[in-house]
């Protein structure tokens, strides 16, 4: 967290893929929740997630990202679909991916990675 706090906010982005994953998880938690405090908490977490993504810069999945994704698929890189899409977005903007998941993302040629958990 200290790296994030030290980085100007105009240099920090997330992706629409990450947004989708977070919302999907929050909605699944609501669907699983029993009525009562668990349901209240699940809705609270959904609202917090929506508010967070309203404040941060979200990179879209563009035609350039689609082109990168198609090139990565042609290389038959074996990582998860969502991770591959995130990588395509980052490559399309010449960005740096901050992740603790070096094992998968290191398989992608040309992707700049930083691990702030170390």
A few lines on this structure:
The protein is mainly alpha-helical.
Estimated radius of gyration: 16 Å
CATH architectural designation of the largest domain: 3-Layer(aba) Sandwich
Task: Return the average pLDDT rounded to an integer.
Answer: 92
**What general outline do the C-alpha atoms trace?**
globular
Class based on secondary structure composition and strand pairing: mainly alpha
Q: Any descriptors?
A:
two-stranded parallel sheet; globular; mainly alpha; Rossmann fold; 2 domains
Structure report:
This protein is mainly alpha-helical and about 120 residues long. The protein folds into two domains: about 50 residues, no CATH class; about 50 residues, 3-Layer(aba) Sandwich (Rossmann fold), CATH 3.40.50. The chain is globular. The chain starts with a helix and ends with a strand.
Ordered list of secondary-structure elements with their pairings:
Layout: H1 2-6, E1 13-15, H2 16-32, H3 37-55, E2 57-59, H4 63-74, H5 81-92, E3 96-98, H6 102-105, E4 112-114
Parallel strand pairs: 1-2, 3-4
Helix pairs in contact: 2-3, 2-5, 4-5
